[in-house]
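To start, an entry.
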Amino acid sequence: MSTLVRPVVDALGEFLTRIETTLPRLIAAVLFLVLAYLIVKLLQVATRQALSRLYPADERLVVDFGVLVVTVAAWFGAVLTLLTILGMTQVAASLGTAAGFLALGVSYALSDMIADTVAGIYLLRDPDFNAGDTVTTADVTGEVLAIGLRKSRLELDDGDVLVLANQAIEQRWRRET
């Protein structure tokens, strides 16, 4: 064989060998992605149905938030599994660890917002705290105009609207009769 043809044949042989060893992983990865897509869609539907039974239609924001959390968690797990299937276990482990630290930092930074959201969910579920009720909280008395996930609005006797964080309301409030 000539000196020019030999390197081309060697390179082609190595390329075909690498394709032969990589092809099963790629096929497994594609099949896994299809399966992961179907599972995530199933989880979304199941989560939406379960949360829709717990929350009335006017609290759709809570249902959408729950579905979003489940979807993000499922896809993150799917990506880590996909990386493992492709033979990148160290990358998957590093991403998992980094995501844990990131989640810890974000949860610390957003702790007040998370507390307001959790309190908002409790207030939305509380049968004694509804729009139109008169309540006293934070040394003020007013009619509940709206209850959101993070903040609620009270109309005071003088017509002013007071916006309070749900965490402040949920800690101590009473319904006026």
In short: The beta strands are 134-137, 140-147, 151-156, 161-165, 173-175. The chain is about 65% helix and 15% strand. Residues 25 and 135 are 62 Å apart (CA to CA). Residues 5-109 form one domain.
